[in-house]
Amino acid sequence: MLRFNDDAGPAGSVSSYSPAxxxxxxxxxxxxxxxxxxxxxxxxxxxxxxxxxxxxxTYLEVQARLWPDLAGTAAVPAADPATIxxxxxxxxxxxxxxxxxxxxxxxxxxxxIALAVAxxxxxxxxxxxxxxxxxxxxxLNRARRDGVFVPWHYVLADAAVSGxxxxxxxxTLAKTIVERREEFGVTWFLIDDLSRLSRNTIESLxxxxxxxxxxxxxxxxxxxxxxxxxxxxxxxxxxxxxxxAFITQLRSKVKRGMDDAFRRGxxxxxxxxxxxxxxLKDAHGNLVITHKNTIEKVxxxxxxxxxxxxxxxxxxxxxxKSAVDVARLFNEHxxxxxQTWSDSRVRQHYGREKLIGKDVFRKxxxxxxxxxxKKKVIHQPMSEWIWxxxxxxxxxxxxxxxxxxxxxxxxxxxxxxxxxxxxxxxxRVDLYPKVLIRPVxxxxxxxxxxxxxxxxxxxxxxxxANNGIHGCTNRGYKSARIIDEAVLGTVMAxxxxxxFLADLTADVxxxxxxxxxxxIPSTKKLEQEIVEAADRPARQxxxxxxxxxxxxxxxxxxxxxxxxxxxxxxxxCRPAAERExxxxxxxxxxxxxxx
Length: 595
Fold this sequence. Notes:
The chain is of the alpha/beta class. The protein has helices at residues 49-66, 81-97, 131-145, 169-179, 181-184, 194-197, 201-214, 232-264, 303-317, 323-333, 343-350, 398-415, 463-467, 480-495, 498-517, 524-555, 561-573, 576-585; strands spanning 2-4, 15-16, 114-122, 148-149, 155-159, 186-191, 217-220, 275-279, 297-301, 358-361, 364-368, 375-379, 386-389, 439-441, 449-452, 459-461, 478-479.
């Protein structure tokens, strides 16, 4: 990719760009990633660093107790801090790279009769992270009773991921090991119970089919499920349906509880820019404690953010400014502690009913694809919205809010993608497959997008700079034609030198000379096929003529003895294949028999 910067020179100035290499394992000193609000990435579902350290320690201590002959070997090393940190690093590397490593015992004495893969999971970020340790303890105890060993390489886990999703990283790695069981040498798949495996009936059945096809035995340490049991084919769909029904009922209960809490006036969602959460105190000034032993929070107006919200609304309503101008202002002053304001986000901000003292819930809902994990936002009809009045949270007057919506609506109608009359024949995002090179902004490192996408004036610009995101100031447009010419000219000047062309010509001539020295393949078989193909119409014509003579003889009436003998003998003298063809095709004038 190419990096562009207005400070580097004219639009044609280019420089090579390569992203910084990523570490294969996280440092033990790095802070654990925040669970709440994180995006889907390579770390989605990975246990936090401390949880991994605890999991590795539990593994070493339990395995050393269960397998005393293996304690101190490469399979079960001593539980010192360096070893535990290295095991956590190894888990993170395999998880991020979606890579399953083969366990090679080496000089370790073989004290087991089979190898197994263990899968662990808990579904909610508010769950106890020690749940993974507890599941691992059950799994390792169950494995030891049957003489089955679980190497650390084959311990897979997902943290804070719903069991309804099939795209879990740890689960995908576990299935990979099962699919390639001959390579990894596993014959067992151990879980705490089937609900840890999946809460999707179809996915549970798919995993059961995979295990049966590969000959891997699936065993639940706590629920007693065993695929080796003849009744498992009946038990698996029943338990899978029960696990999925539990999630369905739980989702319904959570929805009912949230709706009731919203109607009571409780805070059940982030307050948004312009508001803040503060501790609730009673009439005596004491903090109010919830039934979960946490401090009760209430929403109030954030004075600073509210002032910026009013100023932005007045810019749009009265000063003729656009949503992009407001986004630049908000990013410059970090309104709401953010520098990611854009045109669409400003429009969304001023479309919130809370700004005029009305709070609404259930406007949208998310539908998650169970196979890919992608979420789709669906806007629900207004009849399903839940309203409540919050006059103490009003920031904008009705007149100002209506003026802002009217101005933003007219702008969207005139310049948005839904405009009735477009001057463009195609939208910019539809043209990216036709772009040869996509540059990168030299100021913020963000890939540039097409600002003008039609005709000979195609050009790129930085979306961050246009909205003032992250302080990017690269506001210029870069011609796509100049970019292509600069890059291709540099490539041709670097590669297509006189020496390069001479070497290329020599290599081609050498290849042609080698081809010329090769023996000419025999053409006799091809000539024979050509002769047979050319003679095929004549053979078919003779065959049809013979059938017509035979049919004509049958219509002329009884033949004399000699003629009858000839007629009867002729078919018998023909090859068997031709007689069968005549019998199958027929003459179309009636049936006739041969002797």
